[in-house]
Amino acid sequence: MHELGIVIQIVKQMENYMDEHDIKRIDKLVLGVGELSGVVPKYLRDVYPIAVEESKLQNTKLELEITPGIGKCQACGFTYNLVQNDNICPKCGSNEFSIITGKEFMIQRIHAE
Amino acid sequence: MDALRVIEVKKSVYANNDLEAQENRDMLKEQDTYMMNLMSSPGSGKTTMLVSTLERLKEKIGIGIIEADIDSDVDALTIQTTGVDVIQIHNGGMCHLDAAMVRQSLDDIGSSKLDFVVVENIGNLICPASYDLGQNLNCMILSVPEGDDKPLKYPKMFKKVDVLLVSKIDTTSVFDFDFNALEKNVRKLNPDIKIFPLSAKTGEGMEAWTEYLLKKIENGVHT
Ligand SMILES: Nc1nc2c(ncn2[C@@H]2O[C@H](COP(=O)(O)OP(=O)(O)OP(=O)(O)O)[C@@H](O)[C@H]2O)c(=O)[nH]1
Ligand SMILES: [Mg+2]
Ligand SMILES: [Zn+2]
């Protein structure tokens, strides 16, 4: 449900973008989905066809680029994959970290005409 | 067929909403109206807490409530019994409100004549955390029966909010709720958060909360 609302918003945003930049057709839309963004890639793919129906993106292919959730340990400075390590630094065992990548949910690029 | 160009867009998906939220914020500032975004799980006591808060503040300031229930008017009707202006958003089953929907409601309720508007967001701890509405204050309710471990499960929400109301504290003994554990977990995510334990049922803690809120509104309106 959340994903459908988001994708409808993306479609609207891209339709505006097409008008502003005089783009006739988008062949492919590439979204960047961070592992920590709370957005589920499978759901995005599932709802995408519904969201683009009767829009200017009707025939646009969807591609997802997943960015890993990387954190930096605040105790020892080590950078590690948060998801694979359950948010616990594999070097020193601390669970205090700052997020470096993985929170973003972006429209990365389009292949357009 | 024409050659395809690759265009690097590099825009956050939330960019549109962020712009609309900023417009709401600018408009509210011009109107001297303070807006609170109230978020929580379903059934945490939002409507009950609001009614109790309204009873304490409604003689002092002009208040309007925007209710976002998926399918019913029950909460709006409850709020109406206090005599405060209320409108209901039916948002077609979405799991969060966005800035554009709130803008529509602000216009409908006539925010320019009000001092304070509360948006009772859709009950869930995940999706509303991603949508700025243009509010001045983000407030969430966690009720004692939900447990003290919720900050571990929904960090995004606990990081975002300015104020945490811990509601239904009259039930603390029944639910083994560890207030210190909660506070420790919350502060780790959000060191500056304001926490008010309260019970809308017994009235305990309501005074401290409404006094804080009234100050916020008065300062917000004049700065
Ligand atoms: N014991 C106790 N019960 C409370 C308190 N506040 C609310 N409740 C009860 O909790 C239930 C849910 O309260 P609501 O105020 O409807 O909660 P809500 O968050 O608005 O619910 P939704 O809008 O449906 O998500 C009701 O049965 C209330 O009577 C409280 O301070 N103490
Ligand atoms: Mg309610
Ligand atoms: Zn470490």
What would your notes on this structure say?
The complex is a heterodimer of chains A (113) and B (223). Chain A is an alpha+beta fold and 113 residues long. Chain A is built from 2 helices and 6 strands. Helices cover 28% and strands 32% of the residues of chain A. In chain A, the strands form 2 sheets. In chain A, strands 2-1-6 form a 3-stranded mixed β-sheet, with helices on one face. In chain A, helix 2 links the parallel strand 1 (26-34) and strand 2 (61-67). In chain A, helix 1 crosses helix 2. The longest helix of chain A is centred in the N-terminal third of the chain and has 20 residues, at 2-21. Chain B is an alpha/beta fold. Chain B has one domain (15-218): 3-Layer(aba) Sandwich (Rossmann fold). Chain B has helices at 15-31, 46-57, 74-80, 99-109, 150-153, 155-160, 172-175, 179-189, 206-222, and strands at 5-12, 34-40, 63-67, 85-88, 116-120, 137-143, 163-167, 194-197. In chain B, helix 1 (15-31) runs parallel beside helix 4 (99-109) and helix 2 crosses helix 9. The chains are: A alpha+beta (113), B alpha/beta (223). The A-B interface holds A 1-2, 5-6, 9-10, 12-13, 17, 21, 23, 27-28, 31, 38, 96, 104-113 and B 1-17, 93-96, 98, 126-127, 130, 156, 188. Strand 6 (105-112) of chain A pairs antiparallel with strand 1 of chain B, so a sheet runs across the interface. The structure holds guanosine-5'-triphosphate, magnesium ion (MG) and zinc ion. Magnesium ion binds at residues 46-47, 75, 120 of chain B. Guanosine-5'-triphosphate binds at residues 40, 42-48, 75, 123, 167-168, 170-171, 199-201 of chain B.
